[in-house]
Automatic annotation (TrEMBL):
GO terms for biological process: AMP salvage. Pfam families: ADK. Consists of three domains, a large central CORE domain and two small peripheral domains, NMPbind and LID, which undergo movements during catalysis. The LID domain closes over the site of phosphoryl transfer upon ATP binding. Assembling and dissambling the active center during each catalytic cycle provides an effective means to prevent ATP hydrolysis. Catalyzes the reversible transfer of the terminal phosphate group between ATP and AMP. Plays an important role in cellular energy homeostasis and in adenine nucleotide metabolism. One of its GO terms (cellular component) is cytoplasm. This is Adenylate kinase. Its main location: cytoplasm. NCBIfam families: PRK00279.1-3, PRK14527.1, PRK14532.1.
Length: 192
């Protein structure tokens, strides 16, 4: 199995690159952000809870996020593995993911691919996306800056855990989308 953690701050291009990677290697993408938005759209209890955090740019609590992710991992799939997009975002989630992958898939995380983009580019990309995406959390610079702040205070340390396991690879996330994809493919080929 290939199990990829796609990592990076908001606006670094995880969703875009996940799309290319799933096609190239026949993987299943699990995006916790997409799952929350699906729940918000359908006005579920989980959606209502998540919305109260997402609209402020804050992380949703670990337990509900992890439960939602676990349900998704348990669904049968005939792919070669998974791309985790937007999860883990805390140390607690990183430890949870390790257990879930072991217990449910009898496997492990193969690699953490980290897209590196500087903050001012992130803010510009997200504001631009907000013009068309309809995402409330993309519509306002203050919320965007809170999200980037959350990334540095809670998420960046996740990288240290994968570095310790020699599973952490940084890729420059600025440039042509296809060129960035090629760099990611090359890293996946190494662990195949
Ligand atoms: P982006 O990477 O652009 O911030 P996402 O779609 O990944 O967008 O996430 C949107 C929001 O959903 C986050 O700001 C956060 O509130 C919530 N969220 C997504 N994934 C997680 C997670 N693993 N843990 C906690 N909150 C999450």
């Amino acid at each position: 199995m290939i199990n990829i953690v796609l990592f990076g701050p908001p606006g670094s291009g995880k969703g875009t690159q996940a799309q290319n990677l799933i096609e190239k290697f026949n993987l299943k993408q699990i995006s916790t952000g997409d799952l929350f938005r699906y729940n918000i759209k359908n006005e579920t209890e989980l959606g209502k809870l998540a919305k109260s955090y997402i609209d402020k740019g804050e992380l949703v609590p670990d337990q509900v996020t992890t439960d939602m992710l676990t349900d998704e991992v348990k669904k049968p799939t005939d792919t070669n593995g998974f791309i985790f997009d937007g999860y883990p975002r805390t140390v607690n989630q990183t430890e949870a993911l390790e257990e879930i992958v072991k217990k449910e898939l009898n496997s492990e995380i193969s690699v953490c691919l980290s897209l590196v983009v500087e903050d001012e580019i992130l803010v510009n990309r997200l504001l631009k996306r907000g013009e068309t995406s309809g995402r409330t959390d993309d519509s306002n610079e203050e919320i965007i800056r809170t999200r980037i702040q959350e990334y540095y205070s809670k998420t960046a340390e996740v990288a240290e855990l994968y570095k310790k396991q020699n599973k952490y690879v940084e890729i420059k996330g600025v440039g042509e989308i296809d060129e960035i994809s090629e760099m990611l493919y090359a890293e996946v080929e190494k662990i195949k």
